[in-house]
Amino acid sequence: MLGMTDVDVDMNAEIGVIGGSGFYSFLEDVTEVEVDTPYGSPSDSLFFGEVAGRRVAFLPRHGRSHHIPPHRINYRANLWALRSVGVRQVLGPCAVGGLRPEYGPGTLLVPDQLVDRTKTRAQTYFDGEPRADGVVPNVVHTTFADPYCPTGRAVALKAARGRDWEAVDGGTMVVIEGPRFSTRAESRWHAAAGWSVVGMTGHPEAVLARELELCYTSLSLVTDLDAGTETGEGVSHTEVMRVFGEKVGELRKVLFDAVGALPATGERDCLCVSVHEGWKLGMELP
Ligand SMILES: [Zn+2]
């Protein structure tokens, strides 16, 4: 690990990946840097490396030893930290439950919609409260009708198909508070509502990225059929980890292909860039 005196050279990246340790641990040349934010510390250090000629910052969402449960992740610090080192496009791989029988374990879905059923999470930078550093952001209502970056979604789908993985194009991710899995009744309800997959971390990650004018794309790997469609005892952590372990290598290849195919920072022409046109934010984005 480098000391803080060395960070100027190594501490920059244009693309962020928030995921498990499997995504950076195989890189030969990573630089680990601790980053602080006005919202506190992110889940872990940022790990800087190069993929397909692009500078990438990896952040283990649950910490490197997977010790932070979904409802206690400091999502605001995570996204802020990434933006502060230059990141403008974020890929967010995550494990989800499938809510339809055809979305069985091993399915990769790139959602285009999101339903928030979380309860206790700080999900805005514009909450009308002064920050610890004295900055008072304005009240801002951010456009979120389409919560994911259309460019990032297209790139992710193409990357998956390039690896012969027929990813599902679109669908709704419902995000629950966790850390427990759903009851059968909840799961049947989510499925009956027409939603596609259920996860615990996709929100507020997506909205905070949008508030920081970052492009955010979710790559949702189905590890189980949620409780409503399970005939056995419901979702178990062991099963989730088994399927994730089987597929993680493949998902990593897809992610790296996607990293190489994302537009340059200055060439983004999606809605994410101009989402705050006409608003006075009352704070500087890092
Ligand atoms: Zn975008």
From TrEMBL:
<comment type="function">
    <text>Purine nucleoside phosphorylase involved in purine salvage.</text>
</comment>
<dbReference type="InterPro" id="IPR000845">
    <property type="entry name" value="Nucleoside_phosphorylase_d"/>
</dbReference>
<comment type="subunit">
    <text>Homohexamer. Dimer of a homotrimer.</text>
</comment>
<feature type="binding site">
    <location>
        <begin position="224"/>
        <end position="226"/>
    </location>
    <ligand>
        <name>substrate</name>
    </ligand>
</feature>
<feature type="binding site">
    <location>
        <position position="21"/>
    </location>
    <ligand>
        <name>phosphate</name>
    </ligand>
</feature>
<dbReference type="GO" id="GO:0017061">
    <property type="term" value="F:S-methyl-5-thioadenosine phosphorylase activity"/>
</dbReference>
<dbReference type="GO" id="GO:0005829">
    <property type="term" value="C:cytosol"/>
</dbReference>
<dbReference type="InterPro" id="IPR010044">
    <property type="entry name" value="MTAP"/>
</dbReference>
<keyword id="KW-0328">Glycosyltransferase</keyword>
<comment type="similarity">
    <text>Belongs to the PNP/MTAP phosphorylase family. MTAP subfamily.</text>
</comment>
<feature type="site" description="Important for substrate specificity">
    <location>
        <position position="237"/>
    </location>
</feature>
<feature type="site" description="Important for substrate specificity">
    <location>
        <position position="182"/>
    </location>
</feature>
<comment type="pathway">
    <text>Purine metabolism; purine nucleoside salvage.</text>
</comment>
<protein>
    <recommendedName>
        <fullName>Purine nucleoside phosphorylase</fullName>
        <ecNumber>2.4.2.1</ecNumber>
    </recommendedName>
</protein>
<dbReference type="GO" id="GO:0006166">
    <property type="term" value="P:purine ribonucleoside salvage"/>
</dbReference>
<dbReference type="GO" id="GO:0019509">
    <property type="term" value="P:L-methionine salvage from methylthioadenosine"/>
</dbReference>
<feature type="binding site">
    <location>
        <position position="201"/>
    </location>
    <ligand>
        <name>phosphate</name>
    </ligand>
</feature>
<keyword id="KW-0808">Transferase</keyword>
<dbReference type="InterPro" id="IPR035994">
    <property type="entry name" value="Nucleoside_phosphorylase_sf"/>
</dbReference>
<feature type="binding site">
    <location>
        <position position="200"/>
    </location>
    <ligand>
        <name>substrate</name>
    </ligand>
</feature>
<feature type="domain" description="Nucleoside phosphorylase">
    <location>
        <begin position="14"/>
        <end position="255"/>
    </location>
</feature>
<dbReference type="Pfam" id="PF01048">
    <property type="entry name" value="PNP_UDP_1"/>
</dbReference>
<feature type="binding site">
    <location>
        <begin position="61"/>
        <end position="62"/>
    </location>
    <ligand>
        <name>phosphate</name>
    </ligand>
</feature>
<keyword id="KW-0660">Purine salvage</keyword>
